[in-house]
Amino acid sequence: MAVTTGTVPAALADTIVTDSAVDDANPVQANSGSTTWYYLIGDGSSGVITTSTSYIKVYDGTSGAPDSNNPDYVFPVPAGEKIEYVCSEGNALAGGLRYFGTSTKANGSTQAPTTAANALVAKFLFI
10 Å Cβ neighbour count for 8? Predict the structure, then answer.
């Protein structure tokens, strides 16, 4: 098999946010203002999440709240697993990257993930 090496014209992203305790009580404002995110890792593999799927919900802006606003994106994280979502084109957000975790996929839901503390982890790459 032939192997080639090339140069990357520009960095894919310049910021990584790691949240080791995703929950519904404190939505995280990863940044304010226009941004584009490319990559999300949702990790429920700690063994604590054993009976259900948790959800990472992402908002465009600074005012998304678990109990009143519909998220722009909802990503399932199956119990005991690690997932990766990649968007090579990027997901543009005009108002900033804000997220939280729940145990239900319903829009505007506020139920906490069925986990103990530090059981659901999220990592975002963005510019």
Answer: 6
Distance in angstroms (rounded) separating the CA atoms of residues 32 and 5: 36
Residue positions counted in the chain: 127
Domain annotation covers residue 2 = no
How far is the C-alpha of 2 from the C-alpha of 103, rounded, in Å?
46
Structure tokens at 127: 């510019």
> Model confidence at 111, in pLDDT bands (50, 70, 90)?
low
52, two tokens: 């259900």
What pTM does this model have? 0.79
Domain count, the chain: 1
Is residue 65 in some structural domain?
Answer: yes
